[in-house]
Amino acid sequence: MAALLFTAAGGALIVSWTAALFYFGALCTSILIYRAFFHRLRKLYSLRWVLPHLQYYSSAEKLHEKYGEIVRTGPRELSIANVDAAALIHGPSSRCTKGPWYSVLVALDLPSLQSSRDKQEHKVRRKIWERAFNAKSLREYEPRLNRHTFELMGQLKDQVTDSVRITDWLNWYSFDVMGDIGFSHDFGMVRGGKEDELITKLHKGMAGGSIFGHLTWMINLLVRPGVGIEDIVEFDSWAHDVLKRRHKIQPREPDVTGWIVDPDEEDLAKHVPDTKLLIVAGSDTTSSTLAWLCYELCKNPAVQIKLRKILDAMVGNKAFLDVEDVANVPYLDGIINETMRLHPAVPSGVQRLTPPEGLTLPSGPYKYIPGNTIVWTHTHTLQRNADYFPRPMTFIPERWTDEMSATHLLDKRAFQPFSAGTYNCIGQKLAMMEMRSVVANLVRRFEIEFAEGEKGERIERDTQDCFTVIVGALDVRLTPRTAGKS
Ligand code: HEM
């Protein structure tokens, strides 16, 4: 009897599997035929596949070099490195919405500010966040920021050897700052001189960000059943705990959470995605930019000397420069902008969906992008285009100042490291404050050069595109200098 039942069950299984195979076979064949012969993008743009991987931005850039400013990288996906199209996609009156990539984030969670795809919902949330990043709030974060930079400089002074892994220190610094300003949490990584285990796990979990961005259909297959996302789930529960702790206290100085979570709020779970966003959006972005900036300073010692002279002339012998001391130094901002131009922290850009009527471009060989098309503005390629930035591969901070902007900054719309329009980076002013503070103090205290044997190859080769980048290692030699002396 048991044997009979077993055989019957086995037969049913075979029938189900055969039916499923036929079903999926027919489905895949019809999709392939449709995409090969009937897809609405087919006549406009030929398909150039690029398999998602951790250096996606450089593969996509090669496609742009070969096939032009708009490349079809998926059945209904375009990679765009054309300034007019970028301006239409991100302009103030754009009807483009966030694309399905953002559903990857929501599949795991409730929406955050960044993953809200509904325009109205995003607008409401953004209004709340704006209070945390207006001029008054930013001023209130300055003391915390000054303390972190001061601590970093102190630690680097103690570390002075022939070789300092500067990428680690900058990463620890940026997480310390975001933990503190974001939700009064003390990571203490700079003080302790080592990475918090949680951050290691977060970085491991981020690799999927790039891959799923271009294969969103895999979300349901993998992410929903929870395959391979253990590190992300752990980060989620950590963020929940941190938020609960923060909610019980009244910090002595204002933080971002104080603006976005009501003190009487009972449902903290719905704020966890924003807590995670604060960390993810505000840390690796800033630290990777600072890392590339150090790389450029090592490669361009004249830039370092010029900045040092400007700062010395401005502040004399003052040992530590506060955020407000360096708020208006055009050459310093030029160095930061030039770094973000050549090494954007979100190199493959952001994903949007065109409105039903599509987009009509004003000029050039590309006339029309149909509706409901996924578009990525490829920031890395866009910002290295000689039509917008002459001598694009040369590091020229002066292109951002009166000295050379007329000849070397031909179309500022092509500069989008913080994205643009209604969904742009809400933390960009805070990021600038952080970067000015670190770079100005670093350059005044130390002469920076590549460590013995370092040529900058690892940061070039090992940087991973996980939506934001995780940079490869960079070792530098820091030679202390006496303030006010070159
Ligand atoms: C160099 C540093 C930074 C760079 C290059 C950068 C870049 C970007 C980019 C490209 C976006 C658009 C993302 C998208 O549309 O999906 C973005 C959004 C965002 N950034 Fe930044 N960011 C930086 C620093 C920061 C900092 C310090 C914070 C502080 C919390 C922050 C918070 C955010 C938030 C909350 C969003 C989502 C905004 C929205 O969807 O309305 N970022 N950032």
Descriptive account of the structure:
Keywords: Heme, Iron, Membrane, Metal-binding, Monooxygenase, Oxidoreductase, Transmembrane, Transmembrane helix. GO terms for molecular function: heme binding; iron ion binding; monooxygenase activity; oxidoreductase activity, acting on paired donors, with incorporation or reduction of molecular oxygen. The chain crosses the membrane at residues 12-38. There is one protein chain. The chain has 486 residues and is an alpha+beta fold. It has one domain (56-480): Orthogonal Bundle (Cytochrome p450), CATH 1.10.630.10. 53% of the residues lie in helices and 8% in strands. The protein has a 5-stranded mixed β-sheet, sandwiched between helices. It has a 3-stranded antiparallel β-sheet with strand order 4-12-9. Helix 12 (230-248) packs across helix 14. It binds protoporphyrin IX containing FE. Residues 113-114, 126, 277-278, 281-282, 285-286, 289, 345-346, 350, 417-419, 423, 425-427, 430-431 line the site of protoporphyrin IX containing FE.
